[in-house]
Sequence to fold (68 residues):
Amino acid sequence: MTSDQLRQQIYEDLMRDSTQYCCYCGQAKHRMSCCGENHFETFAEMRHEDQAYILDEMVIDELAKEKQ
Fold:
């Protein structure tokens, strides 16, 4: 799978996902707050720039896993 295909697959999965992320630090919401804030949004609700950052990180992680 090419990195572009992987990126598209992850993007589509995230757009359907209900996981909420912190509006300030981008960490996935867990039981406790991440950086002391309490504002969360799904990937689909994020600004494009924030989506791109999270997507880039996830693609890098997946590509690194494939190399192992």
Notes: Residues 31 and 38 are 11 Å apart (CA to CA). The beta strands are 20-22, 40-42. The first strand starts at residue 20 and ends at 22. The chain has a mean pLDDT of 89.
